[in-house]
Amino acid sequence: MVNTEIPKGYTFSPSSFNGTPLLTINHEATVDLDSTNSFEGPEKLLEVWFSASPSSLPETSIPDGLKGVPSEEWKEMLDLVNCKVLSIVESEDVDAYLLSESSMFVFPHKLILKTCGTTTLLSGLPKILEIAALVAKFPHSVANAARGTATAAVPYRVFYSRKNFLFPDRQRGPHRSWRDEVKSLDRLFLGGSAYLIGKMNGEHWYLYLTEPNTMLTPPATPDREQPIKVLDLPKPRLTANACSIDDEDQGRDETLELLMTDLDTENAKQFYLDHASAVAEGQYFEQANKSRSDARKHLGSINDGEETDGKTVQDVHALNGKLFDDSVDVFSNTSDENSPFASDDELTYPQELTTEGHALGTVVSEACGLSDVYPITKYPDARIDAYLFTPCGFSANGVIPSPQPGGSTHYFTVHVTPEPHCSYASFETNVPTSQSGRETADVIQQVVGIFKPARFSVTLFEAKDNADDDCGNKVKKGAKLDAIKG
Question: What does the pLDDT look like over 77-121, one tens digit per residue?
Fold first, then answer.
């Protein structure tokens, strides 16, 4: 279940049109956000797992694992990464952080951090390990200053990946080169593996990963007088639902990522503030005119004595004295002497539909078709937290609770840089195909249709039983992906 209550002290989002997961907006972080200059769209993506699943947290950890960590702790870590929190959507299984540069998702057992631009993502990794150790109480080791922290939790697995940068010379810290990034990760973890996929002189993708039960790198010059300590990992804490639908979802864990470049110029205009504001204005006045038309019809039916809920207006007068005083103009606050209805010029257009923020983000997510990828008709508790930047640029997090009772909550995230000279869009989700009832190729086809890239690459991580996906099925899936035009 998703918490749909908005507690006292929290700010109501302009995009909250229906009952939704709990949302917090950081208005201070949204001041002076501007994407006017050339922007590095391709993101750095980090996943740190501290246990294999939410139901196998170690006995030492706090009940909600990483989800139990206060948001202020994560904000301190994000300061090292050089990005800010714009808003947070909280649900039972995952907290989705919309950032000034992309997104973060916090589960009980893992953290996913995705940042674009010139952020220094790997600079925040030692702090993540420290928070997991000291606040979430995961098993940890101590006294290794070379890691950048005196205390570090022992992760279960670590994944780091990114596409080749458009403007590599602008990167900072450990992200100036792939060699520096690998060196930074090897300083923390033993036995990590680094890969490059694609053309070195063209589009390519980098990946660094560790094996299950990752070991931390020991100090380069350990004190030989001290005995070597063997870390005794506590036994996993099995919950009452250890064999429930959640574990079935975990056994079928899959993450799909689309990295799209050279977006269609005309189509990309919908991710500009001016275009979105014009769309919102048209929708606003159209709805206002419809409401006034409906009001005229309703008022006319009352004056004609037509039935309303089985009673004529005369019946209502008889029961309640009189519906209203005929001498009183019920529209007097919004009309002139000649008409009971305001003209378009007299309507007050909401300011939030003319400036960057969540309101126009919602307009864009609905207008471009993003809200239809996982529609509320199938996922009634789903929530999209979207933001449109000045003068262009778009980010959105989707929190997708399973429509099945007892099922897990999943996510998707989208980020768009629409400028022609550096156009880029990304889509990532872990909603399993078994839950959506759609094949991976169908989801990819729909997303590609939204952004219309000239080129795109797909990464798909799957953890399934061998019987569920034999070699023949993989070949068929690959053939379907090859048929998608980009």
Answer: 999 999 999 999 999 999 999 999 999 999 999 999 999 999 999
Q: Helix, strand, or coil here: 416? A: strand
**3-state SS, residue 431:** coil
Q: What is the pTM of this model?
A: 0.76
429 burial class (0-12, 13-18, 19+ CB within 10 angstroms)?
A: buried
| Active-site residue identified among 415, 419, 428, 436 | 415
Of the residues 61, 90, 116, 141, only one is catalytic, namely 116
Active site residue 184: no
Query: 394 and 361 in contact (C-beta within 8 Å)?
Result: yes
> Please, which pLDDT band fits residue 48 given cuts at 50, 70 and 90?
very high
Instruction: From the candidates 16, 102, 365, 402, give the one annotated as an active-site residue.
Output: 102
For residue range 211-236, list pLDDT tens digits in order. 999 888 876 544 434 333 333 434 44
With bands split at pLDDT 50, 70 and 90, how would you rate the model's confidence at 347?
Answer: low
Is 415 assigned a catalytic role? yes
40 among known catalytic residues: yes
Structure token pair of residue 13: 């989002």
- Quickly list H helices, 159-305: 178-186, 245-251, 265-268, 273-303
Quick one: tokens of 464? 């399934």
Sequence length of the chain is: 486
The active-site residue, picked from 16, 43, 257, 408, is 43
Q: Is 392 a catalytic residue?
A: no
The DSSP element (H or E) to which 317 belongs, if any, is helix 313-320
Which residues, 6+ apart, have CB-to-CB distance to 367 below 8 Å?
A: 270, 276, 279
Selecting among 51, 100, 395, 426, the annotated active-site residue is 395
Query: Active-site residue among 40, 47, 90, 356?
Result: 40
Q: How far apart are CA 41 and CA 115, in angstroms?
A: 9
